[in-house]
Specification:
Elements (H helix, E strand, L loop, with lengths): L1 H10 L13 H14 L18 H12 L5 E3 L6 H9 L3 E3 L1
Parallel strand pairs: 1-2
Helix pairs in contact: 3-4
Length: 98
Amino acid sequence: FAKLAMHQSIQERKANQYARSYAHLPLAQVLVEDYAKRWKNLPEMNPETQVATAVGCTQALYCALQGLINPGDEVILLEPAFDIYHAQVKMAGGTCVF
């Protein structure tokens, strides 16, 4: 069953390339629709360019910190804190302030 389904998918060119790096488009479209229903005043969002998904909160936090922290930035952490916060701030070039 699995081999046949994979073969058919490859023949139909549905599964022979990497997924988009920021969000699987059908998922991004559903998220945009859901957000529009929940928050009426939210500006219109483009699912192709304004939606990103992550494998989990650790990856999402890592990506956010890498994009927001510049080398030398100070980041306030409240204690007790999850141990990964400190490491991710350091990886982004920041300094933790408690």
